[in-house]
Amino acid sequence: MTANATPPPSPSPRPHAVAFVFVTVLIDAMGIGIIIPVTPDLIKELADLPISGAALWGGYLSFIYALMQFAFAPVLGNLSDRFGRRPVLLVSLAALTVDYLIMGLAPTLVLLFVGRLLAGIAGATHSTANAYMADISAPSERAKNFGLLGAAFGVGFIIGPVVGGVVGEIGTRAPFFAAAGLAAANFLYGAVVLPETLPADKRRVFAWRRANPLGVARQIAKSPTVTWFFAAYFLFTLAHFVYAAIWAYYAKEVFSWSNAEVGLSLAAVGVGFAVVQGWLIRYMLPRWGEARTTLAGFIFSIIGLVAVSFATEGWVIYLFIPVMALGAVVTPALIALMANRVSDDAQGELQGALTSVAGITLILSPLIMTQLFAFFSGPETPIYFPGAPFLVAAILMLAALVPFGLGLRREPRK
Predict the structure, then answer these.
(1) How far is CA 16 from CA 22, 41, 156, in A?
(2) CATH, domain range 17-194+217-409
(3) φ/ψ (deg, to 5) at 343
(4) Rounded CA gap, 260 and 245, in Å?
(5) d(Cα 189, Cα 104) in Å, to the nearest integer?
(6) How far apart are CA 172 and CA 78, in angstroms?
(7) Do 92 and 122 contact (CB within 8 A), yes or no?
(8) Structural domain boundaries of the chain?
(9) Residues 190, 86: contact at Cβ < 8 Å?
(10) For the stretch 233-259, what's the b/e string if a residue is b when 16 or more beta carbons lie within 10 angstroms of its beta carbon?
(11) What's the pLDDT score for residue 125?
(12) What are phi and psi of 212, to 5 degrees?
């Protein structure tokens, strides 16, 4: 990973290459979104627990998934720099298919953990898709194209949770089989039409000293600017994952929403994310630049988290969804700031490092947020405040502005 490297112009994208990777991320997001509304009920069914207890086990499931991502994301990122994006992407999709089948058939919590462990090891779909997009994008276009992938993820969340909520009314297992079918279709689609984007002359030798979290950290440390941006990204994702960690539990506890209502609320969030990352960001970037766009996203995210933390009526959530959605500009803009500062043959390593950072936060965030939720919503809580995790997330988001500002100050004067 080279500090402040200026990549040469990328080759012209192959016909429909952007569409290929967009659909890959879209279907992947649909698979994830489908299972969110019913996961609390499945845990309750298997372990005979109240919603607060199910939230704790949900946190542990997220922990094992994130731990595997943290350990293996650098390996997969470096493998994609050595062998290309296509094979790594296809293996990930095949593993996700098996994961959803295991979860759908699981008679015990133990098998649920096995499924999440497998998904964590091979869960490089999104990071490899980002490296794929970096390969076919000029540096000035990367933030917009990363936003396009974010929009694909948002669209997937428009469709996925709605399908999951509706299908979940049939049975708690049905959405997992639907997700497995989508992942399998995604694998077949990629096997037939997905082209390779990393030319042989831009590949580098695989080295175990770089294919681990410690090795990646050493590479990142060579660029102080990128290091500060990584710190900001860490705090942002630690806070942002509060939604994935407790949204379903929070909505059921505070608003008494059904699976279908949880799915519809997630779909509304997905609409907002898709509009912001797929369309609005293309107007913000030319006017504000990547740094100011990122800063604006942080501010909107903080406002949205504070509003959700104190909400007592469901309509308040829908009122602030546009504000939360505006915060979605942070991820593509911040990733672009980093991607434009590393060399072409290290884009996979960068995306693997980002996935590893996300893995750390996926280890910490669900444990922190579900514990907070269980404490402040349980029968013995001294203060009933189920929105506490969102308020803590807002504080973390505010703290992220410090390393982000330090990273900007490290930028060389032009």
Answers:
(1) 10, 40, 19
(2) 1.20.1250.20
(3) -80, 165
(4) 18
(5) 23
(6) 37
(7) yes
(8) 17-194+217-409
(9) yes
(10) bbbbbbbbbbbbbbbbbbbbbbbebeb
(11) 64
(12) -155, 160
The two tokens of residue 68 are 């595997």
Q: At residue 88, what is the residue type?
A: V
SS (H, E, C) the chain: CCCCCCCCCCCCCCCCHHHHHHHHHHHHHHHHHHHCCCHHHHHHHHHCCCHHHHHHHHHHHHHHHHHHHHHHHHHHHHHHHHHCHHHHHHHHHHHHHHHHHHHHHCCCHHHHHHHHHHHHHHCCHHHHHHHHHHHCCCHHHHHHHHHHHHHHHHHHHHHHHHHHHHHHCCCCCHHHHHHHHHHHHHHHHHHHHCCCCCCHHHCCCCCCCCCCHHHHHHHHHCCHHHHHHHHHHHHHHHHHCHHHHHHHHHHHHHHCCCHHHHHHHHHHHHHHHHHHHHHHHHHHHHHHHHHHHHHHHHHHHHHHHHHHHCCCCHHHHHHHHHHHHHHHHHHHHHHHHHHCCCCHHHHHHHHHHHHHHHHHHHHHHHHHHHHHHHHHHCCCCCCCCCCHHHHHHHHHHHHHHHHHHHHHHCCCCC
Place of tokens 């607060």: 52
Residue 245 in tokens: 């960690």
Take residue 375 and report the two structure tokens written for it: 């404490």
What angle in degrees, to the nearest 10, is found between the helix axes of 39-47 and 51-83? 120
Query: Would you write out the chain's pLDDT as a tens digit for each of its 414 residues?
Result: 544 444 444 444 454 567 778 877 777 777 666 777 777 888 888 877 777 777 778 778 777 877 777 777 777 777 777 777 888 888 888 888 888 888 888 888 888 888 878 877 766 566 677 778 878 777 777 777 787 777 777 677 677 777 777 887 888 888 888 888 888 888 888 888 777 777 777 777 766 666 566 666 666 666 677 888 989 999 999 998 898 788 888 988 899 888 778 878 877 887 887 788 878 888 888 888 888 999 999 999 999 999 999 998 889 999 999 999 899 899 888 988 888 777 666 666 677 777 777 777 877 887 889 889 989 988 888 899 999 999 999 999 999 999 999 988 865 544
Closest CA to 223 of 354, 341, 335: 341
